[in-house]
Write a structure and sequence with these properties.
Low-confidence stretches: 68-72, 78-82
Number of strands: 7
Order of helices and strands: EHEEHHEEHEE
Structural class: alpha+beta
Oligomer: single chain
Mean pLDDT: 76
Radius of gyration: 17 Å
Strand content: 15-25%
Distance between the termini: 41 Å
Number of helices: 4
Shape: globular
Largest sheet: 4 strands, antiparallel
Length: 188
């Protein structure tokens, strides 16, 4: 199976970015299903601006994987050890993303309403803003959806990943050289 992003990067950067993030979500969901069913396969991602349409391919072998191999920690294992905040941090770290708490003084920068301290707010950021990062944002988003949103945890992702103006990708101070990718709230 090959996964393509349409339109191409050259024609519409924002729609291309959105497509790559969605492909990341699909790849993460497939990867979890493949692990659960112990299917032997090879997943290869190669988003590039030179050939922007082809983002990933998945090749499935007919034989099953060994029974004891799994590349994913279960959400229950992570949350039982460290709590839901650690789930967010772990998934961000696994995808080379950073999750940092937003102080109340900075709420207006991220268009966060004052909520009387019922939520902690975080910014998900990356060191670069390119197709590989967008794939990883898709992985992160799918992991978070499966682990927190699907379990009815009090998580709010305040970001439309397909709209770059909320939040603006360059809100973090220039000296940090990080790009804002999402704003996330977790009920405390």
């Amino acid at each position: 199976m090959e996964l393509f992003a349409v339109p191409s990067y050259e024609k519409d950067r924002e729609k291309y970015r959105c497509s790559v993030i969605k492909i990341g979500q699909v790849m993460q969901a497939l990867s979890l299903g493949i692990d659960e069913n112990k299917i032997n396969c090879h997943i290869q991602s190669f988003p590039s601006l030179e050939n922007s349409a082809l983002v990933a391919s998945i090749r499935v072998n007919n034989k099953k994987s060994p029974e004891n191999i799994s590349s994913h920690k279960s959400t229950e294992e992570i949350s039982a050890q460290n709590g839901w905040f650690q789930v967010l941090m772990s998934h961000a770290s696994d995808n080379q993303l950073a999750l940092e708490e937003i102080t109340e003084a900075k709420f207006s920068d991220y268009e966060i309403d004052q909520d009387n301290g019922t939520r902690k707010w975080f910014v998900l950021s990356s060191g670069v803003d390119n197709p590989f990062t967008w794939l990883k944002i898709g992985y992160w988003n799918e992991m978070i959806y499966r682990s927190l949103v699907a379990d009815n945890q009090d998580l709010v992702i305040k970001t439309d990943f397909c709209t770059r103006n909320k939040p603006n990708p360059t809100l973090l101070p220039a000296k940090t050289r990080k790009y804002v990718q999402a704003v996330v709230g977790l009920r405390v």
